[in-house]
Amino acid sequence: MQYSIVQKAQLEGALRLDAEYYQPEYLNLLRILTRKPHDYLKNLSNRISRGKQPIYKENGNIFAFTSDQIRNDFIDTYSARYTDEKFYKKNPKAQVKPLDVLLNSTGVGTLGRVNFYYLEKKAVVDGHITIIRTISENLDPIFLNVFLKTKYGQFQITRAYSGSSGQIELYPEQIREFLIFLPPLEIQKRIAETIKQAISLYKQSESLYSQAEDLLLEELGLRDFKVEDDLFYVVNLSEIKSAHRADAEYFQPKYEKLIKCMKKNVGIQELKTIATTKRGSLIDPRFYNETEGTPYIRGKDFSSGRLEKSGLVYISRDFRSKNETRVNSGDLVFALIGTMGTSALVTKEFDHSFISNNVGKISIKNKKEILPEYLSIVLNSIVGKLQFEKEASQTAQPKISDFQVRNFKIPILPKPTQQKIADLVQQSHEARKKAKQLLEEAKRKVEELIKK
User: Within a domain: residue 112?
Assistant: First the structure.
């Protein structure tokens, strides 16, 4: 049994009576923090408030971020939606400025994730994200972002939120009372420089990945391919019977145009001739663990097109696996529902992971003939995305089966070209890996400074 002895004055000052708030681990971290130079966040900033629900626009040019895009490593622009200039100008409360610190403030699994705004493009955030804008000369905003990711920042977040059953909230008035560690500014700047290096490597990673996709589209003759919906078209009854589908979207001419365009330049095979597919397994949540065990991959873990450890769930070592689906390095995973249409390459760090029942896996039969990195680029390009779009069942939440994915048409480029694309993808992964290592190094340095 663990217990804490707390003075009545402390109870009144915190306005909290729940035992969880006063657990020994929290009180110990608080004691360590108060022995170091520190101040309350409310004294170091002139804005601690939430954004506003944006009006999304298909052709908008301003990022509209939700808590899904704010991650502890980098901001996910891949899955972001957009709004327009009109909404941006009318809603200064939602506007994000350079170096603003963005803190996810609602929901299990997303609350507590934090980053700072390092992009050049205009952006707004919704009401689930708290914007922190620093004003003090004693606090570098990039350093603040790192501090909030450390155990000394995270325990204050965990301690302060309220609610249960997934409806957890962290309110601005609670964030205002956070204690912030304040080492000398030159040390803060050195930590910030490490973060800037990480971001530079991340941008390099994104650039290499774009080069790989551009090379693919160039070789397939799809560089100038325009995705346009026809207002009307004629379909034979025999085609409807053959497809077992009668929804008009399925027969949009753009899908056939894509395949015809590729056939002019390369050979095409159905996925089932080069790979096998299998659906994942549902594992009882009572075996979930937040920090250790076997990774359990869900659709949201690769919504950015790459597998992410941020927010990953692990399966406890107590779990006895029987026929649960696992993936190995070189396999691909794809979402069957939810983030349907996204896929990602399984890297070594996810080797032998479980996948959920809302995820499918693709295992290439001969990796000497079809390189995994190449197939990953194909599925994440317009070639894969349009086929996911076509085959998806058009319900309130589009979904697809692994049987449908088996029939995808895959362009087969010559091995040397595949290798060029694969090399760019590998370089992209390596740059991203180094960037994440720098982020962890910065966090570790801050924790060491406090612990000394």
Answer: yes
